[in-house]
Amino acid sequence: MAIPQVDVTRKTPTGRGIIDCDVHNELDSDRDLYPYLSRRWRDHIDAYGIRYYTGSFYPRFMDHRADAWPPSGRRAGSEVAFARDHFLNRYDIACAILNPLTPVGRQPNLELDAALATAVNDWQIAEWLDVEPRLRASMVIPYEDPPRAVEEIKRRGADKRFVQVLFLGRPHEPMGRRKYWPIYEACSTYGLHVASHAFFSAGNPITGAGHASYYIEDHIGPPQAMQANITSMVAEGVFEHFPTLNVVSVENGFGWVPALMWRLDGSWKLLRGEVPHLKRPPSEHIREHLYLSTQPMEEPPRSKPRYFEQLLEHYGYTDRLMFASDYPHWDGDSPEHAVPAYLSDEVKRRIFFENARALYRFT
After folding, report:
1. Domain ranges of the chain
2. Orientation of helix 222-235 relative to helix 257-271, angle to 10°
């Protein structure tokens, strides 16, 4: 798909040509997947439901912005026509990448998980990708069952409208573990990236110190999981073994990255004998293979814009940071206000368009 590029100016930071890396296509209910499930699984869900792991679910705060609910009364984000008019057309979005947050990866029945993943991808094609040409999607996979995940990648990998596979932010094990390597091998074969989206839990506590008491702890907690995941992928040698693999961190913030790289490099100098497979400093792998999204935008007080510019310089974010709205969630960012106005026009163009265009090989 050819994506038009026009200037994104300081005065109007949201001109045509925006690529949004995090739009959520929502299920109104699990029954939306019934047309794409076999009779066996429809009967199973009717009889037993879908059992979720507990933790990291706050019904009030999993809600959506009030103006994003369609007149039909269906859930916000569940109607492509309304999302087209209310968001894509309103902000002249040239391309949006769908990240469906579904039951997949959040319930322990792995056979059902695989069936749901297949249904979600078929639903995305029939009801979203075939309907709106500006959309691309994350492929939903049963990542806790890598053989079945690989089957799903092979089934849909040739459809270039799928640009990456989707992990939720807190899988059973850190993402560098050999358990997940067959998934990375399949992604490398099909030219797919790996996205890790914040929140949810596969049964583990949501912090490194146990279960949290309050929603505010969960809301600011995703960087803990992403730091653990990217550290694991570096230390286990994922990027040494799969040099073309890229990871997209979605909704996990980005202010923590420079300090993590500094500490990893220091530890690697002292302990590199433990990881002889790690031939290069960890920071080099992170700079080359980790892409980040703007939502949530982390910036210092507006009276200190230089601090934000220094943050970008420390990591080289100008080539790795991509715009994400998190539409239609309650804490999402409008393209009009997502990026600090004091950034240069060149940096804005990279964040809103160029970096995603290069990563996803849009023409």
Report:
1. 18-359
2. 30
Burial profile 303-330: b = 16 or more Cβ within 10 angstroms, e = fewer: eeeeebbebbeebebbebbbbbbbbbbe
**Closest Cα partner for 88 from 335, 291, 268?**
335
Strands (E) located in the chain: 18-23, 93-98, 135-140, 162-168, 193-197, 247-250, 290-293, 321-322
d(C-alpha 321, C-alpha 293), whole Å = 6
Instruction: Compute CA distances 208 → 198, 225, 235, 250, whole Å.
Output: 15, 8, 18, 20
Greater model confidence, 195 or 76: 195
Say which residue the tokens 């798909």 belong to. 1
What gap in Å lies between CA 305 and CA 345, rounded to an integer?
15
Residue 269 half-sphere exposure toward CB, CA atoms < 13 A: 6
Q: Specify whether the CB–CB gap between 21 and 326 falls below 8 A.
A: no
- Residue with structure tokens 């079945």? 148
- Count CA atoms closer than 13 A to 214's CA, side-chain side: 3
DSSP 318: G
Q: How far apart are CA 209 and CA 222, in angstroms?
A: 13
Q: What is the pTM of this model?
A: 0.92
Take residue 325 and report the two structure tokens written for it. 């709205």
| Residue whose entry in the numeric block shows the structure tokens 């029945």 | 109
At 219-247, the pLDDT tens digits run 888 999 999 999 999 999 999 999 999 99
> How many angstroms separate the CA atoms of 236 and 180, rounded?
11
Separation between Cα atoms, residue 285 and residue 278, nearest integer Å: 10
Residue 82 backbone dihedrals phi, psi, to 5 degrees: -70, -45
What is the spatial distance between Cα 283 and Cα 303, in angstroms, rounded to a whole number? 30
Which residues are within 8 A (CB) of 300 and not within 5 positions of it... i.e. 6 or more apart?
307, 308
CATH superfamily of 18-359: Metal-dependent hydrolases (3.20.20.140)
**Do 196 and 105 contact (CB within 8 A), yes or no?**
no
pLDDT class of 58 with cuts at 50, 70, 90: low
